[in-house]
């Protein structure tokens, strides 16, 4: 498995033969590879903000082989996960199965009480992927006097307000999840101590023999 940050896929040693055999140009071959990549991928959101690549991989590998994962992060705080990931499976069929299962059943990842959601990937999700390098965006600055500038500035103000509200909600959710994770760890340690205190208790063995109970599984 390759843990990626949109790294280039390994080149196919027979790629040149495929191009010649199918009569495709390199540009057409590139477009086909990108389309196949999108079909193999899905977006998973509503994840815990403490999610890791390894936890998400372990949760999804029951459906197939996970090829790569990209956890999306806050541009202003790269170390902060926003609870969304793009996952590449081995085949498009495996990605379809995950999306179908997560739409029909509640699927929780990492023990957090929030059901994850899955959607098929779209080209727009791969804006920074090397295979999409030919598909560029045109960006420019707007001044308030230009046509359409008023609507653009209104949308920016709405987006900034939504971002502020989202960050506040995410902060509260993160605090609640960290407290829950701490309680789960404390409960586990407490149960572990209780088990260690009774596993070699001779009085329990005497009671077991007295009431003819089956041997304990060690």
UniProtKB/TrEMBL annotation:
It comes from the Eukaryota. This is Uncharacterized protein. It comes from Sphagnum magellanicum.
């Amino acid at each position: 498995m390759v843990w990626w940050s949109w790294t280039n896929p390994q080149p196919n040693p027979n790629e040149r033969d495929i191009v010649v055999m199918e009569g495709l140009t390199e540009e057409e071959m590139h477009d086909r590879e990108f389309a196949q990549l999108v079909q193999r991928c899905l977006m998973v959101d509503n994840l815990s903000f403490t999610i890791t690549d390894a936890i998400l991989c372990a949760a999804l590998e029951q459906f197939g082989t996970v090829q790569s994962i990209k956890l999306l992060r806050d541009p202003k705080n790269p170390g902060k996960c926003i609870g969304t990931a793009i996952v590449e499976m081995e085949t498009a069929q495996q990605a379809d199965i995950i999306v179908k299962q997560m739409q029909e059943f509640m699927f929780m990842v990492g023990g957090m009480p929030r059901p994850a959601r899955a959607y098929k990937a779209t080209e727009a999700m791969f804006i920074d992927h090397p295979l999409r390098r030919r598909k560029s965006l045109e960006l420019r600055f707007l001044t308030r006097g230009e046509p359409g500038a008023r609507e653009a500035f209104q949308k920016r103000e709405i987006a900034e307000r939504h971002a502020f509200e989202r960050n506040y909600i995410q902060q509260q959710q993160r605090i609640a999840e960290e407290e829950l994770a701490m309680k789960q760890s404390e409960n586990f340690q407490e149960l572990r101590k209780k088990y260690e205190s009774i596993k070699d208790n001779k009085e329990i063995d005497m009671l077991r023999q007295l009431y003819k109970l089956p041997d304990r599984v060690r």
